């Protein structure tokens, strides 16, 4: 038996890579989890914890916020409170006829089969919808959080729900200890407005940095290739960066990058940023999709996705890029940030040689045409100049000694 610490990218993901290094045959994951499918087939058991829930107070809060007994409502919770949802629903079902109880999307045992229809999986949860019903018809009642902390930006799981829930449906949160409720409509509107702003920044960007934020979630390689194809089709340059956990000092080393896209699990992509902030905005993959794919979002599909797997082929939300001759690429577009008209992107096929083409300099020297090299040449300071053959050779001499506040040759003054 081995005890593995959290990975460098996020403690909510299953560390299948560390388990593979130790030769483990199974994993037990303690604490909050995003429940994303791992990149390696490995049996995983989740221990989410059990937080105490005051059922009577939560039931009274639910009745106060939902006076109509016929309105469709979904019971949601943070992972540690999921054990109490069925007991809460038992208290409410005699009055509320259309009540749906969600459950964590834990991996099913191998070979298990059920005669019942497979429930809908979304936001790391399962929703046992009746035939002909859709999740967009339901309001939400979320049990979790704390009444003492008003800053719910520290909970990326709740942010994922607020972004993905239907904008026209009510969403209430309830503290499991006190039963205090809060309408999250205003906060959900701020999150969507922030996402629209990041989409506009991505549309204005010319150079995109793709941050490899996960190596243990399934289909991350396919998602990385999809994002590179998106940027190339929109006429943008993209660079893949593997930096571990993104921090402002790390990303500040790449000033030529206009926006960064963090390829991570849904909770990792929505995790709160450090207090210092980043020099350039950090986007989620879904925001780059909305910026580079002119066919997105189509009618009838939710534009506020949170997981990159929803963008890949095989997902009901996948939207292929329009062909090069489509009129969608020539639609005029005005930047809401600068107010300028954006030029239509030059659609390039995936086999375009790109920066491998050689250009001829006036001095008849061949050099590789690279956007990074052109950006470096335009800088006023390009680093230390070696000046080979131009500096006379001299013997080494002793330099100044001491600290900057008082060198030894400066005396006591």
Q: How does this structure look, described?
A:
With 413 residues, the chain is α/β, with parallel strands linked by helices. The protein has ten helices and 20 strands. The chain has helices at residues 16-22, 55-65, 85-92, 156-164, 185-204, 220-233, 248-251, 266-269, 285-292, 371-377; strands at 27-30, 44-47, 73-77, 99-101, 103-104, 120-122, 125-127, 139-143, 171-174, 181-183, 207-212, 237-241, 259-263, 282-283, 333-334, 341-342, 358-360, 366-368, 402-403, 406-407. A hairpin with a 6-residue loop joins strand 9 and strand 10 (181-183). The longest helix has 20 residues, at 185-204. The radius of gyration is 27 Å and the shape is globular. The N and C termini lie far apart (64 Å). The model is unreliable at 348-354 (pLDDT under 50).
Characteristic terms for this protein:
globular; 20 strands; 413 residues; alpha/beta; four-stranded parallel sheet
């Amino acid at each position: 038996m081995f005890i593995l610490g959290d990975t460098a990218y996020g403690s909510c993901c299953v560390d299948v890579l560390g388990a593979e290094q130790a030769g483990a045959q199974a994993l037990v994951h303690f604490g909050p989890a995003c429940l994303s499918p791992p990149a390696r087939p490995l049996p995983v058991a989740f221990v989410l914890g059990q937080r105490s829930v005051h059922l009577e107070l939560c039931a009274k809060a639910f009745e106060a916020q939902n006076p109509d007994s016929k309105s469709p409502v979904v019971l949601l919770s943070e992972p540690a409170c999921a054990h109490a949802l069925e007991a809460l629903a038992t208290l409410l079902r005699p009055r509320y006829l259309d009540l749906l109880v969600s459950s964590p999307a834990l991996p099913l045992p191998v070979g298990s089969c059920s005669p019942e229809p497979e429930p809908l999986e979304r936001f790391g949860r399962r929703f046992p919808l009746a035939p002909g019903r859709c999740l967009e018809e339901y309001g939400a009642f979320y049990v979790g959080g704390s009444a003492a902390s008003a800053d719910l930006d520290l909970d990326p799981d709740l942010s994922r729900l607020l972004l993905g829930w239907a904008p026209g449906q009510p969403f209430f949160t309830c503290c499991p200890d006190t039963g205090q409720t809060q309408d999250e409509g205003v906060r959900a509107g701020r999150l969507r407005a922030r996402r629209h702003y990041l989409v506009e920044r991505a549309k204005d960007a010319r150079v995109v940095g793709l941050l490899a934020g996960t190596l243990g979630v399934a289909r991350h390689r396919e998602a990385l290739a999809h994002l590179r194809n998106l940027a190339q089709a929109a006429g943008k340059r993209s660079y893949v960066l593997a930096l571990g956990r993104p921090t402002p000092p790390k990303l500040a080393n790449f000033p030529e990058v206009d926006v960064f896209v963090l390829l991570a699990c849904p909770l990792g992509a929505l995790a709160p940023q450090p207090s210092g902030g980043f020099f350039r905005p950090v986007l989620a993959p879904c925001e780059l999709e909305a910026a580079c794919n002119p066919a997105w979002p189509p009618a009838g599909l939710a534009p506020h996705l949170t997981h990159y797997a929803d963008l890949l082929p095989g997902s009901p939300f996948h939207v292929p890029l329009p062909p090069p001759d489509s009129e969608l690429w020539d639609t005029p577009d005005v930047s809401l940030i600068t107010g300028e008209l954006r030029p239509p992107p030059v659609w390039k096929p995936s086999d375009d040689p790109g920066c491998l083409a050689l250009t001829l300099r006036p001095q008849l020297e061949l050099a590789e045409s690279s956007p990074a090299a052109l950006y470096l040449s335009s800088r006023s300071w390009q680093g230390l100049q070696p000046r080979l053959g131009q500096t006379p050779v001299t013997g080494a001499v002793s330099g100044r000694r001491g600290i900057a506040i008082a060198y030894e040759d400066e005396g006591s003054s």
